[in-house]
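ENCODED BACKBONE
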Amino acid sequence: MTKINAGRMTHHHEGELVVFHIGMQINRWWRPDLWLPAFFAMPRMLRELSRDKDSGFLGYELLFGRGGPYVVQYWSSVPKLYAYASAPAQEHRPAWTAFNKAARKAPGAVGVWHETFLVERAESIYVATREMGLAKATALAEVGRRGDRAQARFEQGRTIAG
């Protein structure tokens, strides 16, 4: 069983923080030949990134939405995120090329989307949860007396270095 942190916890992070959402929308579930390759490519990328401490990848949470799976990723910088996305020798570039080739066979059968956020401030609270989200990607910290309220945590939650 996963360890539950019984107290009131938050995250701690100093430096740049990027939150990247990426997902797929399965529009024709009866065409697994088109969406399964993209579905199986993401775990390979996450494994590759998790092993590369210099990539700028801090961590992720895998979620399932109405249209399909999506991943919330945490990065240390926008340039490192884009460097990974465009690196021909890493998992993303060949997977993206294969997806585009398959998508041309049946336009609209499967969609992909992403959103990138450079975070100036971040606030979090985790009460009686497993280590997850931003705290898992950065550092887990106890909520002190000064951070008891969300507004106080937000005001103290600068993420941009300097």
In short: The mean pLDDT is 88. The first strand starts at residue 5 and ends at 12. The longest helix spans residues 32-51. The beta strands are 5-12, 18-26, 57-64, 69-75, 110-118, 126-129, 139-142.
